[in-house]
Amino acid sequence: MDFGIHGRWAIVCAASQGLGKGCAIALAKEGVNLVINSRRQETLDAVAQELRALNPAIEVRTVAGDISDQAVRDAVLSAPPQVDILVNNNGGPPPGDFRDWNRDDWIAALDANMLAPITLIQACVDGMAERGFGRIVNITSSAVKAPIDVLGLSNGARSGLTGFVAGTARQSGLASRNVTINNLLPGAFDTQRLRGSIDKAASKSGRTHDEVAQARLAAIPAGRFGNSEEFGEVCAFLCSRQAAYMTGQNVLLDGGTYPGTF
């Protein structure tokens, strides 16, 4: 299927590995020109070379730095000639006990996982509406639907973004002008973050990495962790012309783990 986005320009944040990289790869395959961002220039350059090799017809530009920093966001936004597609992504805040978090912890979580994506959305939507095309995908977390007790910082910040999107996506000046905003909610995907989480749980419990991983797998009806390639392909669909009638939605990719009806 041709997603009808060949030649568009996309910004993909936190694209040097994991789910962000999966989204960048999927968009590259669709012929989308890319501005990719992550903290380390060396890693980012390697990914850019990989994307150019994957599709020599596209242009790939890089901006290194923390997307929570306004100066980095300004550089990212000025890198493409226009922004047709925005994929908001950032690393999640650390787990812990809410009793131990102070105001600075909360502000850092909000800056990274709520305010940074909102600022990027603000900067892009009016230009998208004027041109009659825009796709925004926010990578959040399955914890938005089923909160995880030790991820309170993430639960709070990402839920705030979800509430913001629920109203903003339905503004007639955006939805009627072919600008969509949707959230993509990953469950357990085979990423460096998940492997690190399993290592920490194993160390704390005295079990092996494989034992903890198998226990996690037992709770997933699909019987496996997701992979970044399939995640990226769903993201690319949400950016497609075919998804023009889909906005303000929370798309859950968790292998069937969430037990609810809604």
From TrEMBL:
Gene3D superfamilies found in the cross-reference section: NAD(P)-binding Rossmann-like Domain (3.40.50.720)
Highest taxon in the source lineage: Bacteria
InterPro entries: NAD(P)-bd_dom_sf, SDR, SDR_fam
Pfam families according to UniProt: adh_short_C2
Family: Belongs to the short-chain dehydrogenases/reductases (SDR) family.
The protein's name in its UniProt record: SDR family oxidoreductase
Species in which this protein is naturally found: Salinicola corii
